[in-house]
Amino acid sequence: MKTVSSLKEMFEFSRKVKDRGQTIALVPTMGALHEGHLSLITAAKKKADIVIVSIFVNPLQFGQNEDLKKYPRRLKDDQNKLKPFDPITIFTPGEKDFTPAALAAGIEVEILSKPLCGKARPGHFRGVATIVAKLFNITQPNYAFFGEKDYQQQLIIKKMTKDLSYNIEVFSLPTVREYDGLAMSSRNIYLNERERSAAPILYKALNHAKDIIEKGEKDARRINLIIAQLLGREPLVKIEYVGVVDPETLEETKEIKGKILIAIAANIGQTRLIDNLIVNAK
Ligand code: PAF
After folding, report:
1. The domain that contains 12 carries what CATH number?
2. 132 CA to centre of ligand 1 in angstroms
3. How many CB atoms are located within 10 Å of the residue 230 CB?
């Protein structure tokens, strides 16, 4: 298994792969790999000759009072999880090289970055888009893979890829869940026992909303309220937002028609979790 940290070495490696006429799939991650990441890597392996998994806890996407310092960093563990996928290339750029203090340029994906997670995390998606663009430039992938748990993120990356004419096909894959419905996330390890048992309420609330919509409810405000009420029953949950929005534009929906996205962000204790579901209304 190859682990590359130098930007130059990574660039040269990718260039050689391309020169040989082979294809590259990139799976960008911040490490602390779980089954969700592994499902992306499985799909990437099927698609391309060479798979690069980047592991970089990106300081640009964390706000000042967020969990950058305590975010899990466990490279040895991640390398072990990636062994069954060998041959695979791991890219672990250093923070000083990749996000030097003098970094001034950045990528802003207007409109899509404003609602939902963008409200409470200003600058977050600029940080994400900037780092993903840098990863694209260095690893030169033909394909890139993201999870739908971060629905807004994958939408923003697809828009960036199109608008900046990257010749890259971006895939988004379904959320992988724990046995009780909790969406897999590297942040789940922050949850204590009591919080962990409360956490599946996010997915339960999404499914409850889905049932009601499928039975004919059209009023997005009512759906919003029903979700808030259900989440409100769990004292450990503090809602950040509940969104009932158009899955392409992320604009708020009033009357539910066709495909809609229901998205939730909530704090369970100190841990911020997000989840979402696409529902097809009649
Ligand atoms: O989803 C993530 O882990 C990160 O936001 C990403 C895409 C690797 C960018 O840092």
Report:
1. 3.40.50.620
2. 8
3. 18
Average pLDDT over all residues of the chain: 98
0.90 surpassed by pTM: yes
What does the H/E/C string look like for 88-144?
Answer: CEEECCCHHHHCCCCCCCCCCCCCCCCCCHHHHCCCHHHHHHHHHHHHHHHHCCCEE
Q: Which residue has the tokens 């190859």?
A: 2
The pLDDT tens digits for 216-265 are: 999 999 999 999 999 999 999 999 999 999 999 999 999 999 999 999 99
The finding on whether 132 has its CB within 6 A of some atom of ligand 1 is yes
Kindly state whether residue 196 falls inside one of the protein's structural domains.
yes
124 is catalytic: no
**181 found inside a domain:** no
Q: Which element (helix H / strand E) includes 27?
A: strand 24-29
Q: What is the pLDDT of residue 282?
A: 79
Task: Give yes or no: residues 119 and 209 share one domain.
Answer: no
Q: Over the stretch 127-138, which tens digit does the pLDDT of each residue have?
A: 999 999 999 999
Tokens of 35: 């089954």
How far, in Å, is the centroid of ligand 1 from the Cα of 30?
6
In the block, residue with structure tokens 């009023």 = 219
* Domain carrying residue 195: 186-276
Structural domains of the chain, count:
2
What's the rounded Cα separation, in Å, for the pair 117 and 240? Answer: 9
